[in-house]
């Protein structure tokens, strides 16, 4: 999907990386060094709904059929994550113990219009 | 689509860059704490020596340690319900080494109310030194006891495991304590006291060498998951 830039107003992915050291969270988060807190933003005009990275769902299929047949609907289309990946973390949860866990769906990989 | 200024999705007027960045960082912090089921970030003062930490992580294949000491995690595909791997180091202050015959370890747990933990697997990792005498039998009988909290080392204890160790060379050894830990957590206690005896001719080959920075600090590993779906807090182990 598109990466957001200065002149992009349609549905795109904005990269946003936080280094834990910059917010003093590296004292208790052992790994990773930071977090890609990407997010989706932008318009989903009619001709874009259902693409790119189609939010694969029955809703999108029905919506496409309506569009193909020129049936104008009042429904709006939204810019949402269409692909996400887990964030593996190791952190101190107290003085003498650490926790390793994989948090699902934490990092947005791509965006698309519903 | 006309290039409307400000937020392309919601039309809000553009924020001043720094203010937007600060807002995004606050949102990220909240999201991370919520996903880790933490009310606030843990306040860590004196942590476990990094060398002991890196040893434990290497043992768990939790990641590769780069030259500069930072850790690169393998991205495992998370199980359907978020599982946790907890590594707990014995509270060295509580670990009295006075009794040469056995090593007494205290692990502290603080369980959040209203939650119950299922222990999928748990092991105690102990480093046993070699006897150093090539002519001696290279096997050694090790015993792990559960001792009553507050009891004096050596008294009022229950044998959990007996295991022959190969001590031709110094090495790590694991002892499975899944059922013990599950019973302990279900009992809502706070301190798990274990004693490890690897005695040979009056000396304990599993004792800690006194340096606080030893990479061979004993630790306990537990794969756990929350049983209750509604309870939002992970057991906080101290």
Q: What does this molecule look like?
A:
The complex is a heterodimer of chains A (114) and B (238). Chain A is mostly beta strands and 114 residues long. Helices cover 10% and strands 42% of the residues of chain A. In chain A, the strands form three sheets. Chain A has a three-stranded antiparallel sheet, with no helix packed on it. In chain A, a hairpin with a 2-residue loop joins strand 6 and strand 7 (97-113). The longest helix of chain A is centred in the middle third of the chain and has 11 residues, at 58-68. The model of chain A has no long low-confidence stretch (mean pLDDT 82). With 238 residues, chain B is α+β, with helices and mostly antiparallel strands. Chain B is built from three helices and 13 strands; from the N terminus they run H-H-E-E-E-E-E-E-E-E-H-E-E-E-E-E. The radius of gyration of chain B is 23 Å and the shape is elongated. Chain B starts with 16 loop residues before the first helix and ends with a strand. At the A-B interface, strand 6 and strand 7 of A face helix 1, helix 2, strand 2, strand 3 and strand 4 of B.
Short description:
The complex is a heterodimer of chains A (114) and B (238). Chain A is mainly beta and 114 residues long.
Strand order of the largest sheet of chain A: 3-6-7
Secondary structure: helix percent of chain A = under 10%
Judged by helices, strands and strand pairing, the structural class of chain A is mainly beta
> Main beta sheet of chain B, described?
5 strands, antiparallel
Number of DSSP E strands of chain B? 13
Helix count, DSSP H or I runs of 4 or more residues of chain A: 1
Q: In angstroms, what is the radius of gyration of chain B?
A: 23 Å
**SSE order of chain B, one letter for each helix or strand:** HHEEEEEEEEHEEEEE
Summarize model confidence as the mean pLDDT of chain B. 77
Radius of gyration of chain A: 19 Å
Distance between the termini of chain A: 13 Å
Task: Give the spatial strand order of the biggest sheet of chain B.
Answer: 7-6-9-4-13
Q: Low-confidence spans of chain B: pLDDT under 50, at least 5 residues?
A: 230-238
